[in-house]
Design brief:
27 helices; 645 residues
Length: 645
Amino acid sequence: MKPIRFAPTSVLVAVLALLLTAPSHAQDLDDELDSDTQPAAAPAGAGGAVANDPRYVWDLSTLFKDDAAWEAERQALLAEAPKLAALREGFGRDAASLRAGLDRLSAVNQRARRLFTYASALASTDNRSQRNQERSGQARALWGQISSASAWVDGALRELGPARVDSFLRSEPGLAKHRVRLQEAQRMARHQLTPEAETALATMSPAMGATTQIRTLLVTTDIEWPTITVDGQPVRVDNIGYQRLRTHPDRAVRLLAFDAFFKTYARFQGSLGAALAQRVEVGVAGARLRQHPSAVAASLANDAIPESVYRTLVAETNKALPTLHRYFKLRQRLLKLPDLAYHDIYPDIVTAPRRYTPEDAAELTLASVAPLGAAYQQQLKQALAARTMHVYPAPGKSSGAYQSGIYGQVPLIFLNHQDTFDSVSTYTHEWGHGMHTLQANGTQPFETAGYPLFLAEIAAFTHELLLADHMKKTAKTREERLFYIGEAIERIRGAFFRQAMFAEFELATHDAVQRGEALSGARMTRQFCEVLRKYHGADAGVMRIDPTVCTEWAFIPHFHRPFYVYQYATSMAAATHFTQQILTGSAAARDTYLGILRSGGSRHPVPLLKDAGLDMDSAAPYQALVRQMERLMDEMEALLPANPA
C-alpha cells in the first residue's frame, strides 16, 4: 500500500482513506495483494532471538515515549476535535482568518497522523494483543471525530469561489503552503454535498469501512485453516503457509496446498462475498451522490486522473497477453513440466544462488542506487542506520511489508524478511517508498509533502529495477544471471499483468452494481474465473486453471480498497521508463526523476509525469514495458542450451 500520506485535497478525504485502508500500508507486490494481517512465522534459521534483536526491531519512542504519552496525546486531540467545528465562525472572512483556520486544521491533522501511525505500527507487530486492537480502534474513532468536526471545511472553501481564493493567495504569503488544498476545493466543488450531508458522511465513515475489518478478523481469527503434511511435518495452510508452500519444489505439495487453501476460501465465499459486495456498493453509491459518472471515475478524481488511463491500461494489457503466455511456456520449459497449471507459477525457475541477510539487502540496495547519485546514496545510508525497521517475522506479526511516512522523521519500514532474494526485492522496494518520503519531506511543507498513490509505487519499482540491473551486471555465473533475469521477468508478471488482471475484475464488479445487478460470492468467483482463464491462456492450452482457484479473489485484501491495484501496473510501466533513462548515466534524466519525487503532492500526477516526458494516458509506456519483457526473455533463452535434457 501507499504510505500513510495523502495529497491534501481535504481532511475528510485523508481521514476516509485512512479509515478505509487501515491497517494496510505500502506493502510489497505479491505480499501486498496476496496477504492479510495474518500472524507471520519466522523464516528457517531466524528464531526468536534473531527476530527480537534490537537491530531488527524499530524504536517507536521517536513518535511517543510510551503508551501513556500516546494516550495523553489522544485525550488532547479528543479535546481539540470540537474546536475544529468552532473554526467555522469567521472562517475565510479575510485572508488572515483563512490562513489561521487552515494552519490549525493542518496542525491537528499532522498530530493525528502521528497518533494513528503509532497505533497501526504496534498493531501490525502483534495482532494477538488486545491492547493493540483497542488502541487501533481508539485511533480510528478519533479520526471519525476529527473528520466529522471538520467536514464543513471544503464547503466553506468552495463558497469562497476561485476569484476570492486567488485574491487571498496573492495577499497572504502564508497561504502558499495551502494553495493545493484551496485549488482542489474549487476543482472538486461540483462533487461536494451540503455541509450537513458532508458531516453525516464523515460521521458514518468508520461504519462504512467496517467490512474491511470484518474480513480481516474472519480470515485471521475465525476461519479454521487446514493442516497438511509436508516433508513429514504438519503445515497449517493459512495465508502465510500458502505463500510458502506455493514455491515448494515438489509439484504434488503445491497442488495439495492450493487445493486445501482455496477450498477453504470457497466455504466462506458467501460471507466474504457479502463483505466485498457491500464495499463495492458503498463506492457506487458514493459516486452517484457526488455526481461522478462511475465509481472508478470517482476514485480517480481525487488526483485528477482521467478514467481513460485506467481503461487504456486494461486494453493494452489484454493486447499484450501473448507476451505473458510466452513467459508461461518458457517457465514450463525451465521447470521441465509436461503441462502447466496455476500452482506452477511461483516456484523458482532457476535455483537461488544463496541466502540474503538484512545486511546483504542493505548493501545491495545501497550499491544498486548509485545511478541516482552520491547524495541520494548518502541519505539512504543514514536512513538505514536509524532504528525504524521491523525486520523479521514473529508470532502474531502481520504478513507483508509497508512503509509509513512520518513528516520530519525517517519513515517506518515494516518487513517480514525471509533471507531470500525476494526479501531483498521487498527491502529495496520499501526503501524506495522511504526515499520518496524523505525526498518529498525535504522540499515540501507538510501540506504538500504527501504524494498521491499514482506516484507512490514508481519510486519503489525504480528501486527494484535498479537492483535487478545491478544483480545482472555483477552475476558471476550463467546460472546466477539466469536467476536474476528470471526474477526480473517475474516482477513484471506480478506487478504489471497480475495487477491489471485484478483491475479488470474490479471494473467488472463495480460495473455490475452500477447496472443494478446484485453481487454475491458465487458471482464474484465466476467473474474472477473469466479473467483468470483469459490472462493465463486456459482456452489456448497455455495453462490449466482448476475451478478451485477461482476463489482467489477472496484472498486479495486490497479489493476492499477499490481501484488501488491498477497503480502497481501503471507504476511498473513508469518506473521502467525512468530506469532506462537513468541507466544511460544522464544527469538530466536522474534529476528529472528526483524532481518527481520531490514534488510530493504539489501537482497532479498525470501532467507532472507528462512534463517529465511520460504520457500515462497513451499506450506508449505499456507497450515499452512489454518490449522490455520480451527482451529479457530473449536474453534468458540465449543463455539456455539449445536442446535441454
